[in-house]
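Q: Here's a chain of 70 amino acids. Please give me its 3D structure as tokens.
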Amino acid sequence: MDAFADQAFKGNPAAVCVLEDDKDEEWMQSVATEFNISETCYLTRIVDSDSQSTTPRFKLRWFTPVAEVS
């Protein structure tokens, strides 16, 4: 994904990983380090059986090649 741009291959690159299950921090950091781009994000679907909403919700975490962004 190219953030802050309206054209492909412009702006800031970011890897977007949609996960089926939660992964530990060490695994996510290793993948971000392997991508070696400014930001890697991980999306994990939040399953809330009590919610009446049909809109999906996701947990989002960002990592640089060296650390998680808080």
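Q: Can you summarize the key feature?
A: The radius of gyration is 14 Å.
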